[in-house]
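Sample entry follows:

:::
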Amino acid sequence: MFRTFCAGNKLPNPKLFLMKKIFLLSGLILLTTVVNAQLLKKLGDRAKNKMEQKAGEKVDKSIDDATSGKAKTESKSETNPQEAKEEETSTGDKAQPAKTEALKAYSKYDFVQGEKVIAYEDFSNTAVGDFPTRWNTNGSAEMVTLNQKEGKWFRMNNKGFYLPEFITSIPENSTLEFDLGVNNDFDWGNGYFNLYITDLEDRDLFTNNWSTHTIHFKFHPLTGANYTGGVSFFTERGKANLHNDANAKNWDNKKNLFAHVSIWRQGQRIRMYVNGDKLFDVPRAFLADQKYSAIIFQSENIRDGREDYYLLGNIRLAEGAPDTRSKLITEGRFVTSGITFDVNSDVIKPESYGVLREIAAALTENPTVKVRIIGHTDSDGNADKNTELSKRRAAAVKNALSSDFSIDASRLETDGLGATKPVADNKTIEGKAQNRRVEFVKL
């Protein structure tokens, strides 16, 4: 068979056959190399793209985490400031909760609290359901607590006059502040809240029948699209009677139930603010020869058959405008109880803006000056917790001066002494208010 095959077919040249095999094998190897290289390149490109995608996702996640973390912190500071997480900064101060927009909303607030507290009322010494012992009235009211607000509140849901008997003088240079609120379904036509600055020597206490010159403010919140809310100003029963109305656009019975009222007397001049907005600035409201010895609150025309009411709290009367620049720069020390905080918190109340701005102005005018910020508390509560709270409050002031007023943080040191250095008697409400203070010491 072999021979037959050989006879009919010529055998290929062995050398040529070997060369063809080698050429074919080389081609396959080259083709495999090229394919593998392209495959590896594709795999490499895919891996690179995947890595870049992962890296991008990681960066995006970091940004998202940072943003959501900030938002979370801001949310906590707005809803429950005490839950906001505290972190250590490079200077050792505890990082403060993110600022709410409330402080910035007071950016035009030029009110500066009086230096010496002469009367204070937060109703802390009055039991819930009782009428405060330092007050008098011809109506009725009671002490209540609220879900959305700290502290105790004086609830007035009947017609009546209410006299804080512990206030016996309104000095020529003084500031008066209080918080005023309403229930959230307050009827637009259901009465006003009145404040009278007057003298008790020549008036019938519980009526509007008096001959003494009186400063009179009438308050009513914004209550709907068709009804404006605001404040009316009067001078009554005397010479140069005045009257005007103003719209309290940032106080209403749906969105913002509470108003912080600030009144500043400088001689005959009166300035009046609601939630940071200046509504009145009257050069000659007070009479130069008139005595003003009392303030009287009144709930007026509260209609029967409804559960409408006014809430009064945190009354503060202080004497003397602080000379911030002189005391801090010249004397080397400035102490203020005008920087206030939420209860048991390091969150600065927005009405502190005026004092903070004065301090920032002094530091801006003297760029080489460095200060130590020292927080102080009253003696209520645990001593160690008070010390820690005072440190956090000092750090919050530093943070506000740096972030909101562009004061270099390296110029500011902080400390807190709790209740260890009282300047007044912690057994009285006014003494406690004086002891809750922030001290600035020139270094």
Remarks:
- Residues 1-11, 47-98 have pLDDT under 50 and may be disordered.
